[in-house]
Amino acid sequence: MGNNALKTKYIQKAKAIFLANLMQGYSAWKKTNYKYIAPASKEYIYQWLWDSAFHAIVLSHFDTSWAKSEIRNFLMGQWPDGFIPHVVFWGNKKILPHWAYIESKLSIRPRTTALTQPPALALAVEVIYEKDKDKDFLRDVLPKLARHHRWLLENRDIDKDNLISIISPNESGMDESPVFQFVAGFLAQDAARLHYYYRRGDFLNHRFLFNSKLILEKDYFNCEELVFNTVFIQASRSLAKLFLEIGEISEAKFFDGIAQKSENSLLEKCWDDKDQIFYSIFSKNEKKAKVKTVASLIPLFLDGISKTQADALVKKHLLSKNEFWTNFPIPSVAKNEIYYTPTETPFYKVKLLWRGPTWINTNWFVIKGLRKHGYDEIADQIIEKTCQMIEKSGFREYYNPETGEGYRRSNFGWSTLILDLL
Ligand code: GLC
Predict the structure, then answer these.
(1) Ligand 1 contact via 173 beta carbon (within 6 Å)
(2) Model confidence over 257-285: pLDDT tens digits?
(3) Within a 10 A sphere around the Cβ of 108, how many other Cβ atoms?
(4) Which of 75, 247, 311, 395 could pair with 415 as two cysteines, CB 3.0-4.6 Å apart?
């Protein structure tokens, strides 16, 4: 099947998935109607920050007004101080299942978490704007997104290097990634201890009422993480470009400057000369979390990565059969890491996420980066293998990087991102 025919087929499928996962009603808390696409129909019934951005990117291919409403709906959950939380628990019923209940109870405001996620909304706004040039939409959403970026700079950058710190693994969007075991300071495959450590962090954050500066000062979890910062930098660039479109020159200059400074810091501080790869850095001493995961490749998405760095990422790591070049790339953890688990990682009744399987949203970042920096052939190969995986297993949450078998939720929203790559 040619790319156009595939794209038409996937558009139909995306429409069906989005309709199946569509949530709408009246929110007594916000005194307004809400309408959004949940990541999946069962359990994942709330609205997540970066999932919404990915859904909006897909929607922009067939319905820009629906794409805009997905973004606008999420922004109704923004806090008065500008902070954008990672989950908005729409609806009026008791928040369930148990993990959602706990996350909501730990928060300091009703019906949202007090954590955030990679700030991908501005990336989606840029994609939508390219399609329909709606300046009123920009005038509505840009100031809100700008406030969130400023909040991050003000509250999450205590060492003033323009890299944003996350205060919980969940804020990376890659919850149980082994990167955070380095931050935790234990390197074993001990899931019970991992969970204990995570819950301890949650309770401490709650005890300090999510006062980010205080939490970072205490230094029990302080990670200048690669995915979060790569998204922050490119999203700041999107803000700069879009502010220019509506004639807001000083805002455009401000965000351009931020993107540049943050990018310089990331490219310098997170690069490991010996291993020729990027690592997240953690604690006030800025130690490197030396475990190779797909996050180490995501700086390819940066406009300003050097040719030498990009070449090293692609040739030494992405294309290495010992690391990321599996039958169905890109595994979330490199094959030669002790944590690499291509299958599901069950832990009692919960599954540990991001321990080896391939996810389509991280493929999206790397593929866009490959295109940006002239590695078209490799981008094409990953797209082809991603399509094969989907043909074999459907739109699943994640996939076995060796067999292409699909795991966990079915009809998973952001897996339809493939159609933005065709
Ligand atoms: C999982 C993922 C996170 C995603 C959420 C909703 O927690 O790790 O990135 O946003 O599910 O799909």
Answers:
(1) yes
(2) 999 999 999 999 999 999 999 999 999 99
(3) 13
(4) 395
